[in-house]
Design the sequence.
């Protein structure tokens, strides 16, 4: 906890100093600081709570049951929208690919997608640690639930997290090829099954994020032109612009 506090304090301190040095208006950096700080506060609260493995097992079982009900309602929304309406679902009513975005009882599909991705990773981690086949099957199915939300970031986050887990196994030299082959095969199956209805969604995602490398590289030029950058996907421009600022203003 002390180490985490030290890293968090240094990170937040650097943000404050850089904002003051660059004369960023108060109405910009103070709300930004609040958004940044809440993540560290939540992390410290979680780290300070002492729970036993048995408590974690019992709490996660309850949480999994609640999550499965919410995610199951989303599947009903996809297959039987009239029934879902009777269950109190208010459709988001925005299509991605050939399907409507699924949001279940949430006001926005992104929340549904992130819940599905998180629970999927939790179950895949359980499979990795305990070799429970049901956890693998359910984790793969919930990976598919993240896809039907029609949101890109939960799907990307799910894939990046799996890659990080595999990299950790490689670095610690605890690689179980059978385990990761099973997880990889499940993920590949979800992609193959979903590509028939989400192919346009995948293609547009690839186009938005990687289809215009010359526009992305414009951000890193010494004197970038605004017109090519304006045509970038906002999230891509934000990420690339952050890297360019970090490069130009090191260490602040």
Sequence:
């Amino acid at each position: 906890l002390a180490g985490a506090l030290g890293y968090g304090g240094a990170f937040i301190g650097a943000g404050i100093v850089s904002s003051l040095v660059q004369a960023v208006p108060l109405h910009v950096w103070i709300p930004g600081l609040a958004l940044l700080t809440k993540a560290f506060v939540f992390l410290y609260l979680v780290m300070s709570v002492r729970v036993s493995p048995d408590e974690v097992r019992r709490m996660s079982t309850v949480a999994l049951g609640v999550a499965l009900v919410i995610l199951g309602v989303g599947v009903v929304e996809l297959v039987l929208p009239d029934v879902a309406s009777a269950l109190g679902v208010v459709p988001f009513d925005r299509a991605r690919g050939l399907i409507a975005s699924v949001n279940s009882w949430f006001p926005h599909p992104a929340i549904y997608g992130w819940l599905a991705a998180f629970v999927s990773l939790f179950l895949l981690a359980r499979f990795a640690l305990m070799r429970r086949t049901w956890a693998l099957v359910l984790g793969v199915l919930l990976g598919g639930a993240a896809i039907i939300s029609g949101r890109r970031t939960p799907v990307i986050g799910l894939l990046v997290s799996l890659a990080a887990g595999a990299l950790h196994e490689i670095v610690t030299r605890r690689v179980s090829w059978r385990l990761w082959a099973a997880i990889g095969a499940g993920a590949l199956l979800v992609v193959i099954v979903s590509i028939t209805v989400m192919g346009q969604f995948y293609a547009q995602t690839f186009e938005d994020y990687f289809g215009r490398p010359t526009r992305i590289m414009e951000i890193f030029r010494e004197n970038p032109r605004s017109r090519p950058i304006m045509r970038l996907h906002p999230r891509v421009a934000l990420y690339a612009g952050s890297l360019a600022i970090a490069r130009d203003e090191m260490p602040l």
